[in-house]
Design a protein that fits this description.
Layout: H1 10-24, H2 30-56, H3 61-71, E1 77-79, H4 80-87, H5 91-103, E2 107-111, E3 119-123, H6 125-148, H7 151-165
Antiparallel strand pairs: 1-3, 2-3
Helix pairs in contact: 1-2, 1-7, 2-6, 2-7, 3-5, 4-5
Length: 169
C-alpha cells in the first residue's frame, strides 16, 4: 500500500542537509552516504521509468534525452554542439542522434545563415506530441513510485540533490 505523501518540512530538510554536509567532512561519512545512496536510488529509478516509456515510442534513451534538451530549451531550439554539451557526448555522436530524430520527424534542422557549419535543431509538432505522451505515461509510474517513499527517504534524497546544485535553504 502506498505511503500517503506528506508535505516537506523545510527545517528538517535543512537540518538533514547540514548533517550530510558535515558528515562529508569527517572521517565517518556514513550519514552523507546514506543521503547519496537515497538520491542515487531515486534518480536511477525515475530515469529507468523514463527510459522504459521512451522505448515504447521507439526512442533510444539518449535520443530521448536529446529531445528533452531541445524541447526544454528556452526557444525549443539548440545547436548540435549545444546538444552534445548538454548530453556530455561528442558533437559527432550528437549529429548522429539528430539524424535519427530528423528521420523520425521529431525534429527539424536548419543551417545558420551566417555560418553554414552551424546547424540549429528544433522540435516538430510531432516531436512535442511524442514528448507529451511519454511524459503522461511517466507521470503515472513516477507518482506511484514517489508515493512509496517515506518522508525520510524523500528528504534524504532531496538534501543531497540540493547540496549537489549548491542550493541553500
Amino acid at each position: 500500500m502506498p505511503v500517503v505523501s506528506q508535505p516537506l518540512d523545510f527545517d528538517r530538510l535543512r537540518r538533514r542537509g547540514n548533517a550530510a554536509k558535515k558528515a562529508r567532512e569527517t572521517e565517518d561519512k556514513h550519514t552523507y552516504f546514506v543521503g547519496v545512496a537515497e538520491a542515487r536510488y531515486v534518480l536511477r529509478k525515475v530515469f529507468r521509468i523514463v527510459e522504459e516509456q521512451a522505448k515504447k515510442f521507439d526512442l533510444d534513451p539518449l535520443a530521448h534525452q536529446a529531445l528533452i534538451q531541445i524541447y526544454g530549451s528556452p526557444g525549443m531550439e539548440l545547436q548540435v554542439n549545444q546538444i552534445a554539451s548538454r548530453l556530455d557526448i561528442t558533437p559527432a555522436f550528437a549529429s548522429s542522434l539528430v539524424r535519427i530524430l530528423f528521420n523520425k520527424d521529431l525534429i527539424s534542422r536548419r543551417r545558420d545563415e551566417r555560418d553554414q557549419r552551424v546547424t540549429f535543431v528544433s522540435i516538430t509538432r510531432r516531436g512535442r506530441e511524442v514528448m507529451d505522451a511519454i511524459d503522461e505515461n511517466v507521470k503515472f509510474h513516477v507518482d506511484y513510485f514517489v508515493g512509496q517513499l517515506t518522508i525520510e527517504e524523500r528528504e534524504r534524497a532531496l538534501s543531497i540533490l540540493m547540496f549537489y546544485v549548491g542550493a541553500k535553504i
